Description:
A: 3-stranded antiparallel beta sheet; 3-stranded antiparallel beta sheet; globular; B: 10 helices; 25% helix
Amino acid sequence: MATRTRLELIEKIEGEAQVLYEYEGERIGFAQIRFLSSRHIEKILEGRDPMDALSINPRVCGICGHAHLIATVRALEDCYEAIKISDKALKIREMTLSLELLQNHFKWFYLTILPLLDIEAPIERALEPSRLAGEMIALLAGQYPHNSYAIPGGITGEITPVDLLEFRHRLEQLKEIFRRYLIDVDLDYFVRCDRIEEMLGKKGDLPQAMRTILDLGWERMGQSLDRFIVFGESGFFISGKSTATRMRKHLDLRYLKEEKIQKSAARLVAYRGRAYETGPLARAMVMKTPLIKEAHRRYKDSLFSRILARVCEVPRLLRYLDETLQKLDLSQAAWIDPGPMPKEAKGTGVVEAARGSLIHQIEIEEGKIARYRIVTPTQWNLGNGSRDNLYPAQKALIGLHRNDPAELVFKAFDVCSVCTTK
Amino acid sequence: MMRLLWLSALACNGNAHALLNYPGFKVWQKEFEWLYHPLLPSEYSFKEVEKGMAEGCDVLLVDGTLEEGYVKYRRPYMELLEHYGKQAHHIVTVGTCATFGGIFAQGGKGRSGLHFRGDERLDIFKNFWQKSISLPGCPVQPEVLAGTLSLLKRKTDIPLDPLRRPKYYYAYTVHDGCIRNEYFEYKIDEHRFGRLEGCMFYDHGCQGTYTHGSCNKILWNGLGSKTRNGQPCMGCTEPDFPKENLWQTPKHMGIPARMPLGVPRRAYLSLAGIAKAFRIERFYTPLMKEE
């Protein structure tokens, strides 16, 4: 059968990517995913003072730069033999990180996914919660995007009860927005819900989107490797990997390998030589989120499960913010002096960013950054593997008919080209 | 309606996302139309933009570091700038990358801003100089971008500085409006992170006193700033951003090497000597100490 190829530009993701589709007849036989020229941030960091990484790294990405900051500070703190950080500072970091995830989820759902389902929703439904989340981060961290408030030993600013009042008001507004726009159910109830029909029967943009996917008959499209990996741990996420047959809790970063590939600025990444899917669906599978387990039982790791998993993090993150806020003890120190940065050290920082696990590794020699390595979620999900070693998005695209929604399948992974061409 | 065309080169999308956080966005947006924006719904796809179809652009917004030979899809980016730059009535460089080259200019050869590589003037787009406005910042404050576009729409005269930054926003320094200013004025040269008190000028690299910008006049997200939160200003609106050792103050004989904007070293030293001699107790007491 003759093979025809078509090069497609995928835009309005974070940055752009190119996909070279190879058709076999009417169906996609293979897809190469390419990211364009790199900014070389890892190289820019070399030779600099390690603290500079706190200022440079948020600039890896305009939408998930805060995750890069937290990964950086964790990598720097890992360089110390012993370091004390107050529970307060750790909790505040978790809160700002959760808020960045929230604004990502809202923007992705409303600006990326809904237009591909031909559902018209005012863009303010994305922007209003994103602005609120930005304000809440700014209350604790000075500004959003691109602050550098997390530093070895804690955080730069002292937080007063007045800041928390303002924070709480906005958190209540976010909860209202969740109910008003996304799905009209009680937060706690929805977190426990495990019935797809119940979700579909509610009012809101989420059930409407999921019903549309069912009406169009797309619910089984985009099935992929069905292997999931989560490296980051927090009070909210748990790390592990999950395949159809088993679940493993302990991951060892020594098995993480990267290789350069041709025609793409993104390096290929593997754990014990295998590709995995990372991100909200992976997190839900490892955490065993009831509604997502049910979606997966019915439709496997399809775009239906993937989209639902992402949006289902919203109520969970809101509840997590509430709980964390209640436990916050403001009498603790915001920053405990960790002493000078070691002159020779290695450190790793792992974080769950909106799109999945983000890993930073630093090597310090003679007091300067000798090497810096960043592994992003998109390197996993949108990796450009070969025909006998397919990566999640490639696997999901193969077999689609030319009339099938390839762009939706692709964007359901939420591509961050910006991070990947770091 | 004013028609806007946003073209990104090597960017992080931070400027695009910062604009979405503009508190007045919903109302502001009513007067503008996006021929292209990297995130928002817009009239043309990027492929159509590349083909030259996005006619009638009033303002070309250039974002990200320029790189020789950079191609997004099929057409060289520089060619696109040439094509749309000619039609546009105004060209706005959004953020420090597009203005001076910024962080990413350090990542490879042939990288720069539209008219500058650092503070060096470039000739390549010199025909566009007269209609260009620089809005540096990493990212640019949304009020600065939205406000400048609204001023252009109203045909308001905008006084510019030699780097073509609008004075309405860049005549101030980041130091203006910082709530830690008293610690600077009275030379309390001790600062610890995680505290409400203290000034980062002496030890922790704060560049606020010589960085042009409105960060403490127009607050971020309507409510905060780096320096208020206890982070040093990194000088992100200036041509030499990012310098090295951003968290340390370079010093000569124990005195900060770089003086506040326009202040002679001698004047600074005389004032510092007097201020220190008084040792005013209030500045050595925690702000929240109950009395």
